[in-house]
Amino acid sequence: MTAHAPTPLPRLAAALRRLPPSVGPVRLVAVDGHAGSGKSTFARRLAEALGGAPVLRLDDIATHTELFAWTERLRRQVLDPLSRGETAHYATYDWHERRFGPAETPLPPAPVVLVEGVGAGRRALRPHLAAVLWMDVPHEEAWQRGRRRDGTVQSDFWDGWEPAELQHFSGDPSRPFAHLLVRQCPEGYEVIRGPGVTPAGTESVTESEGPSAVR
Predict the structure, then answer these.
(1) d(Cα 124, Cα 209) in Å, to the nearest integer?
(2) How many domains does the chain have?
């Protein structure tokens, strides 16, 4: 197997900025992967490399009863306003209170907006996405990480989540359509070409390079 050097995230950020807009003036970029695969941390670091790009967390859109049935809500509250170049406003779900909060979170039509969460690269969203990034961690390893992170207090949730996630990806897989695969390594991240067609302008981020500036 050919070893790949870590990919500096500013280089990836620059490549994403060069992509054509995918929804209105926005380049909407999905960070998908199994629960526990490191999506949130990677999205946060990539957002920093993008100069503070907005991040939409799908955990804020999903609910206990709609783990994956949030597409229409996302379209209405986020995609439609962004397509018009307007700031989107979406209600944020409180997983402890099991209801949406009264305040709405603004999401401006920035040049690049990240949408992070399980199913971010789903079939219904792909026409609106400039790129799909997949955190390339096997589901068994990712779930073990997630369970360790959340502790025993969330064990019942995980018991229900795992079969629901498997069912979702069985019918609507994201990885086969990922443009780039993201793998964590001791020095940062390596980004390599995914099974999907790599968007023009992002090919160079998969080439070997020196150590990542992101630790």
Answers:
(1) 35
(2) 1
